[in-house]
Amino acid sequence: MTLQSSDRCNKDPLPSTLATYTDALSSAEALVTLYISNEHVRITNDVGLDKRLCHNCLFALAGQPDSSSGGPNEDVYIALNRVVQARSDRVGTGVCNATLSWVCADDQPWK
Question: Which of 29, 53, 86, 94 has the largest CB neighbor count within 10 A?
Fold first, then answer.
């Protein structure tokens, strides 16, 4: 799992990598949960992973201005990948399914 910077911080045409967690999907049956909030992401899985990243180049969800579009950021972009054809240079199967839901930040253990 790779976390990319937002366009707010990125000066190149492509986003820069803020963090990579190679152990997020450590088994074929892994259940991964993402908690996303302003400038913060927490990644947990059912085999003990619990990683947190706070960075001003992550999701801008507190009404910060977006210099590339002029208005405040209110969008979250998540890309989910599935390996279509197994090759020797690709390991795993990718995402089988995904469920998105909203939770109240006051109820979350990252505080």
Answer: 53
24-60 confidence digits (pLDDT tens): 776 666 788 888 888 888 888 888 888 899 988 887 7
Cα dihedral 25/55/6/101 (nearest 10): 50
Please tell me the pTM assigned to this model.
0.69
Alpha-carbon radius of gyration of the chain: 15
pLDDT, one tens digit per residue, over 68-84 is 666 777 777 777 776 65
DSSP 50-86: EEEEE-TTS---S--B-TTTSSB---------B-SS-
Q: Give CA–CA dist 5/56, Å, rounded.
A: 9
**Alpha carbon of 66 to those of 60, 63, 95: distances in Å?**
9, 9, 31
Total Cβ atoms within 10 A of residue 8? 16
